[in-house]
Input
Amino acid sequence: MAKFIINGGKPLKGEINVSGSKNAALKIFPAALLTGDTIEISNVPEIEDVFRAQEMLSFLGHEVKKIKSGSFEIKSGKSKCFDLPANLVNKFRASIMFVGPMLASYGKVKFSHPGGCVIGAGTRPIDLFLSGFKKMGVKVKISGKNYFLNVSKLKGMNFFFSKVSVTATESLMMTACLASGETILKNCAMEPEIVALANYLNDCGAKIEGAGTPIIKIKGVKKIKGGKYKIIPDRIETGTFAMLAAAIGGDEILIKNCNPNHLEAVWALFDKIGVNYSLGKNEVKIKRSKKLLACDITTHEYPGFATDLQSPYTVLMTQAYGSSLIHETIYDRRLLFTDMLTQMGADIIMADPHRVVVNGPTKLYGRKLVSPDLRAGVSLIIAALIAKGKTEIDNIYQIDRGYEKLDKRLRNLGADIKRID
Ligand code: UD1
Output
């Protein structure tokens, strides 16, 4: 298995570029199934989850061609197969995003329960997707871990999400574009990636109103055209680099090609804990702070503090003065990685599966670690860069799933990080 070897303790400085958003890109490839025309996508992050989405689209008969670095052209084709291949579905949770567009285009699809990060109790549920599809007239048969869905004509509907879910909101929003009549979705997630997807679909002829608010209305149309789409900057990567810079920045770290407006919860928190930062239109500058102060957080759906930024923030709090309570409300296994921070010397007490208390500041020391999931993996890299001595992080496929050439970008900041394949 590939691993990273990191020698920590060096202050970092310089510039780092933010890639296109993983969570936006992963929805555009399935959305390509909705049109018979050609699509051009730019600013695509070249990461493992995106490669899997491209493989899925190619398997389903579309031609995915790289035009240049980060830009792809998708020419539509006709699928002869309605089974999403298990070897791809098992690798990334966002494979579920292909189900709705398959129903809209072909009226049937078979798939197994999607994989991805193991961060919730048991397997991550898909009940909201299935309930929404059923309301659109889809027949759902479940046999073990396999799902068989079919519908003769999708119909508009009224749906209330009993839990706020990003991908379920996006999935039903996309599917409803080709249903007959109007669909009203209530208690929707409001993430910027949802707004970006709606803007793209509207440019291609969809009629979606209200994306970015809790109520989204979609009027079904007969056809979705092709179009051009530039993936928005990855706000989670931006926030992660901001935490890294706050924890170990030297003179100054400039985070480029990002959208600071998508991270207001982070900047409000930085004001409280004493991070020295300034925001530009597409960039963030962070200078080393004399003293960081501890502060509690509770993860929340957008625009609150993102669960995907909880783990880098927890690492940052090991360097802050005082005690901070980290309350993870979305996923109940996302705090388990803190055990590895404790092995590195952090003073962390687990109150229950959803809450830990971090007492800081503490010195961290290099250790042999295994990346448990995508976001925890990148946070272990931050911890390793802070730590004294050598850290080995194994299972870095989990990090490559979401971060493009991360080691190279960190080396540009002066980090001593090496990939061993
Ligand atoms: C998306 C993001 C992920 C982020 C998460 C929360 C993508 C590809 N991934 O994941 O990076 O961490 O939002 O911001 O965009 N749930 C159900 N039933 C369902 C679906 C979800 O109970 O059918 C629950 C989940 O277990 C979780 C909560 O809803 O507790 C939120 O999950 P959700 O927003 O769906 O996460 P994802 O969309 O999978």
